[in-house]
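Morning. Coffee machine broken again, so started the prediction first thing and wrote up yesterday's gels while waiting. Chain of 287 residues, entered below exactly as on the submission form.
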Amino acid sequence: MTLRSFVSALGVILALLLTAVAVPTAWVDQNIVKEEGFVRMAGALGNDPEFQSKLAAAAVGTFESSVDLPGPIQSLAADALRSAASGMQSWSDYPRAWEETVRNSHRLNFGAANQSEEAATTSALVLDISPMVRLIRDHFAEATRIRIDVPAESLVSLGEPSHRQLVERVAAFAPLWWVAALGALISLLLALVVARRRSLVLVFVGLGGLALAALWTAGADLAGGVVGNLSSANGVAELFKQEFLTAAKTSFGQWILIAAVTSGALFVAGVIGSFVSGRRRSRSAPG
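Came back before lunch.
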């Protein structure tokens, strides 16, 4: 093996190793660490009937515990709250309240908001359902003409302190995905520049990319199983975890598909290039 071939092979290997890290880390940064990506992915959870039901029950329970109604209107309040628990998801302003719930929760868990004393003292991941509680308050006021103050935050625990520590580590390192991506690009360019047969570089990069797609798929399944087996603080937390894992797996699967298609295209281009260059060499060889 010549020095050029060795350097080219080393560049391909390094590019694949760095890509193996860069792609999943970039996905985490774009879809979990960044607020808009998290809201886009978690927003679909508000359409799950079972999750909606448990979320409504939790919000109603929080509302009930935060108010002290006079005896004469307690029966009226009970009817209004039962209606809220069973039909809140059909209200026109429910989607906006759920989106605000997701945004507030992301800011609390990823440290992008000024936390209240209650949020600052908790060491676990939380879901802030205060927008849902305020939604119930507003509809309750429409039904009873009684305006009631509710807590500024209503936090539902989503797990244990160790889960929050993991999120903090992810939030610290995921935004650095571009370093690995840049290293992979430089390594690939180096491999192409020094290679005697660039088409072979494309072949091996394509094969390596397809192998990475399979590895990412297996890794996503493994990570989903590990996270799915983690203990949850309550029924709302368990449903949120399971539905979010499903949404995350679907989202990352789309990234894997794009990577696999791109790798397949590189492989085909490399094979075609090798075939064409081989025919040219055979024609130019002395007869």
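Strands lie at 126-128, 155-157. Going to sketch it on the whiteboard this afternoon.
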